Amino acid sequence: MMHTEPQTAVSIVGRGAVQAGRLVREWYAELDGAAERGAPAAYVFVMGSLVELLRSFELPVVFPEINSLQTAVRRVEAEFLAQAEDSGYSPDICGYVKADVAVQLRGGAHPMGRIPKPAIAVLTNACNTYLKWGEIWERMYKTPVFAIDVPSARSANERAPGAAGLARDRRYVEAQLRELITACERISGRAFDIDRLREVLRLTNEMTASWRRVLALNAAAPAPFNAVVDGTAYLGVMNALRGTEAGCAYFRDLEEELAYKVEHGIGALAGERFRLIFVGVPCYPIFRRFHEFFADRGGTFVSSSYLWFASGGADTGFEYDLRHPIESLAEGVLLGVRRATDAMLFQDRLLIGAADEFHADGIVYHPVKSCRTVSTGLAGSRRAVMQARDLNCLYIESDMMDRRVVSEAQLKNRIDAYFEGLESRRLRTDSGAPRPEESPCAIPLA
Amino acid sequence: MSTAIAASAVGADLWGEWRGQAIGEMISRARELTEDMEFPTVRRWRERGGQVLGHFQVYFPEELAHAAGMLPVKVKGGPVEMRQADAHFGSYLCSVMRSSLELGLSGHLPLDMFVTHPICDAARNLAGVWARNFSYPIQILYLPQNPNSASSVEYLRAEYQRLLSDIEGVTGAPVGVEALRASIAIYNRNRALIRDLYAMRREAPWMLGVDEAYVLLAVGTVMRREEHNEMLAAALAALRERPARRQDKMRVVFEGGFCEQPPVDLLSAMAQSCYVVDDDLLIGLRYLEHDVPLTGDPLGELADAYINDSTYSPVQHDLRKPKEQMLLRRIAGARADAAIIAAAKMCEPGLDEQVAYSQALEEAHIPFFVTEFEEKMSNSDQLQIQLETFVENIVFD
């Protein structure tokens, strides 16, 4: 529901970014308070976070991935990584894990405050590093680690699970959720309240519906938000405040803002020239500069695979059936994690669909050293997408955490050369010169 | 359409060169086969009309493919020159991912079906990468990472049933319960022989080095288990008669060979410096610790054995098996004095585990040596010097 009072560009445009910052700071302040009180907290991850269930037990949720990226955005990651490496962790493992190890060694202190210790860790098999990460807390604190198997697609060409397969997988996830409920009752000292879960699910339904509409609004030209810079801020709220009234209110306001911008032709970038899709994890150590490399040449990220997988597949539009909360939560987790996994491992088809929907001029692949899940297959994916569509695709490697493998000058050179190609193509198109013949799509889109 | 090959062809040797050889020569030829990236046994099988199921590391219930008349082959990379695979991957990746794809793209390892498991973040991508390059069926097997759930056996049993259906789709012939039981019996025999081989390593390590034992084990990944069983039985009999002199060498456990395999030369270098009395090399071949029962539902029994009667590796999460405790148990069981804690370069699970292993070994006052390796390393001299220094330090401490 949109607000009805008259709004002006001054009061509405830019509101989403400001509010996101405020809400995330408030969320961290709450965690700081929980740490002070020694309250039990749940550690979770963005893919299959299960915050709905944990909120129903009133457990504060900590997202270590978000804490870690904050160290990079705030340019203090080097000291955190060094501390973990001094403790024996290899330079060749995930930087998020190492930053968190340092946070734990500092008693929970990080750039946004302090986080409580984990009373329980809940993770899925959407990322194998989640499992190894949880084992670190097991060893540090004897934290109960609850790993939930969420089987995803069994082959690259599997569009959707068949009814029998879905039912079987859902039953398995549901059985594990019921075991998790028992564990949460023990840890929180509260009895499971199905009506409280129902209420949190209702709020998540509202947020995910908004999330889907927000992403779709960026199909407009000019795009009302940058899917990497602004999108990452929206993502923070989507994860941290999932299943809350504050989260719902935020996304209602955000929808209103973005609709206003679309209606008035206000783009995230004044003078949008090239519409790009981002694939991978952002380059947090130079987050703003990375954006400028593109924005300075008129490039806007209109979509991003990061907003698909790092939202835990919130873009699927799955709506929990409030009549059957546990069964429906199981199905939602299953389909959400599956969507996230598809977006990381079998993204070719999704990217081609997005390129069409968002009228993209090109795709920027950004594999990072820290995350093999997201990065390992991107070189081949790029080749497949280029075979299917006549798109300019850039492939640049760096990292999401470790500045030692981020070469700004090299990145800028590659990006500048990429824009030369985009400009050249634009000139060709504008002059009516024939484009290279578009290949028939080798990847079935249906 | 069934392409199951004739029974006479199934029964015939795929390798056979080991027959009639003295143990030294048998080991020498096993090493040649292990390092032969042309996969002659696989080619021979296909020339006879057989079909091949490749499965990526670490564990796969080969009984399913065997019962269907396919040749199960462990896809574990190898020291090959990268000509095509690098173009399909990013820079920060272990070698076994690249070399496995290279073996497929080069045509050296022709398959009719490929099964991969999300054992690590890199391997999760294999199905997508392979699907872009090969037309044969490619399947993902999600082995439980929550084996502590009361529902994990039932889930896994259903997964095995699903995979079996896919396998039947490739061969065109159904697989009956008796065929599965027969295959489980053959694999039980294989696991028992491998246990004997490791028992010999523990009890009389001077009888065979880690490099020798490794190649006798590794050839099993590219041949029918019936032949491997015969070969192992012959090798064990010959080894028991082998003249060998006990030396004053330190007893160590090698950990870190669960996926990417170290070059045989590197294992030889270790064997020169110490007795490697246990290891996790090709641990998938002996992941199930005891015989799988032949009386119940075969798929259910296989699933139950994986969940409840299996060893450990850095790529399986199981609250009942803290990996550092399992390592300490392995060291104690082998009466080892020290440990070599290795990891393949860029292998996240292995590198993660090195930290926990090191802490546990320190607390237990067990000397250990941390190192990294790569399957295509051509020079083991430096490691050998480091290892000798490590051993000398302990001896003269």
Based on the model shown, name its key terms:
heterodimer; A: 446 residues; alpha/beta; four-stranded parallel sheet; 10 strands; 54% helix; disordered C terminus; B: 397 residues; 15 helices; 8 strands; 11% strand; globular
Report the C-alpha radius of gyration of chain A, rounded: 22 Å
Strand content of chain B: 5-15%
Q: Describe the global form of chain B.
A: globular
Q: Strand pairing plus helix content of chain B: what structural class?
A: alpha/beta
The SSE order of chain A reads HHEHEHHHEEEHEHHHHEHEHHHEHHEH
* Largest interface (CB < 8 Å): A-B, 57 and 61 residues
User: Helix segment count of chain A?
Assistant: 18
Q: Report the uncertain regions of chain B.
A: none
Q: What is the rounded Rg of chain B?
A: 20 Å
Largest sheet of chain B: 4 strands, parallel
Low-confidence parts of chain A: 437-446
How much helix is in the residues of chain A?
40-55%
Give the oligomeric state: heterodimer
Strand order, sheet with most strands of chain B: 2-1-3-4
Mean pLDDT of chain A equals: 93
Q: Give the end-to-end Cα distance of chain B, rounded to a whole number of Å.
A: 68 Å
**Outline type of chain A:** globular
- Sheet-strand content of chain A, in percent, reads 5-15%
Distance between the termini of chain A: 32 Å
Mean pLDDT of chain B: 95
Summarize the structure.
The complex is a heterodimer of chains A (446) and B (397). Chain A is an alpha/beta fold.
Question: Could you describe the 3D structure shown?
Answer:
The complex is a heterodimer of chains A (446) and B (397). With 446 residues, chain A is an alpha/beta fold. Chain A has 18 helices and ten strands. The model of chain A is unreliable at 437-446 (pLDDT under 50). Chain B is an alpha/beta fold and 397 residues long. Chain B has helices at residues 7-11, 23-35, 40-47, 62-67, 95-105, 126-131, 152-171, 177-203, 210-218, 225-240, 264-273, 298-308, 323-333, 348-363, 381-395; strands at residues 52-56, 71-75, 113-116, 138-140, 250-255, 274-279, 338-344, 368-373. In chain B, strand 7, helix 14 (348-363) and strand 8 (368-373) form a beta-alpha-beta unit. In chain B, helix 9 packs antiparallel against helix 11 (264-273). Chain B is globular and about 65 Å long. The mean pLDDT of chain B is 95. Chains A and B meet through helix 7, strand 6, helix 8, helix 14 and helix 16 of A and helix 6, strand 4, helix 7 and helix 14 of B.
